[in-house]
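Fold it.
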Amino acid sequence: MNLPLDTHHASLGTASITQRLGHYIGGKNLLQEDGRSGPVYEPASGRLVAQLGLAGMHEADAAIHAAVAAFPAWAELPPLQRARVLFKYRDLLEREYDSLAELITREHGKTLTDAHGELQRGIEVVEFACGIPHLLKGEYSDHVSSGVDSWTLRQPLGVCLGITPFNFPAMVPMWMYPIAIACGNTFILKPSEKDPSCPLRLAELFSEAGLPAGVFNVVNGDKQTVDTLLMDDRVVAVSFVGSTPVAERIYTEANRRGKRAQALGGAKNHLVVMPDADIARVADALIGSAYGSAGERCMAISVAVAVGDAGDPLVASLTEKARVLRIGPGVRPGVDMGPLVTDSHRARVLSYVELGLQEGAQLVVDGRDCRVAGHEHGFYLGPCLFDRVTPAMRIYREEIFGPVLVVVRVPNIETATALINQHEYGNGAVIFTGNGNLANWFMRTVQVGMVGINVPIPVPMAFHSFGGWKRSLFGPLHIHGLDGIQFNTRLKTVTARWPEASSYGSEPLGF
């Protein structure tokens, strides 16, 4: 049985373990009176702050039913009118900018500055989607044959499903649902069960903007919930962001069931440091990209590739800067890095630090003993820096997803590029150099989906598309941007002629 949810967005620092979180279905917050549930923690303190209902078949079916019922009217609404709802939504997101950031920081742990940045990048996708009347324009060919014209149009798919990770509880969902909904689809979001409050609030605000009930639904849950949604024939398209093993399973299962799918997987992003680069500037860039958000970013730089003589000065500068990073609660002014999202994830990252030592890498900066006064039970891990790492080591090959940066030393740019191209992941790669010809050669040769030249985190803007190569992406289309429009619509081509009434019945039989 479901009951209305009184409030789920308590202000930061006031939540208690009696708080209960549920779902957002058919334009209403809904609580589960019984069934499965899971804990939601405040990473900064380690406190249990809420219990989250994990959807079963009843809740999943209710969300799909609401989305199916809302689809015909929403799809038929002119794109200009859909855009007006998105414009209002954008204004509400700006109004709630600070409170949404607080929800993110409370349940994820990242700093408020980082949370604000995440929201801004998400809002930019909403702004892109506001241009849907233009983005849905087709092509027209006049007089392709005698008296014949031909044109194309894009039409919505139906009920779309988005499955998103914990590290960006606002931005990654907003990579998906604004464009899908702008295109005329209805949407079910299954966010991470680790930090569910922000997605629920995003749904509330969309309804406040005038979105009809059932167009956007949020169903919280775990693997069982995902499987229930994924296997339902009424869901016609699936977008996923997460680890590579799960991405591959989601993509394979969706395709087996005839669903359209895009699944973004893991990453091991490299930053190549040429000897001519400004080492101090590179070190600043690496500190921010490797340790920002405690390394819990799919675009975090986790491998620094030092070319030639760049190794020693780079490691020395990184060591100096990493040791003075300020670790603490994300709400505390001046903090550089907050905690990891859960204690179990912290334990997983710690196991990789231990593994690196066993493999023979040099742990130059050791953050394992990080303690934050007054927050002794928080899920903190200080920055860790490994030097003399080799491609055979697991700490190089595998995605750690924490504040662990490894340095690999190579003799030349050709070796550095080959190293990246041989890795199973192909999400992003960066080069720092003052040599334009070299940078252009690297940009064209490196086998990744997103390239940075003297920028540490090459995340595309909303009007471009985000996605990697190789085992970082399953499916032909990237996410948001024009690829997002293509993914969320079907192309229809019309060929038309208006003959004279007297010519009916006199058509030739040839093709």
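The first helix runs from residue 57 to 76.
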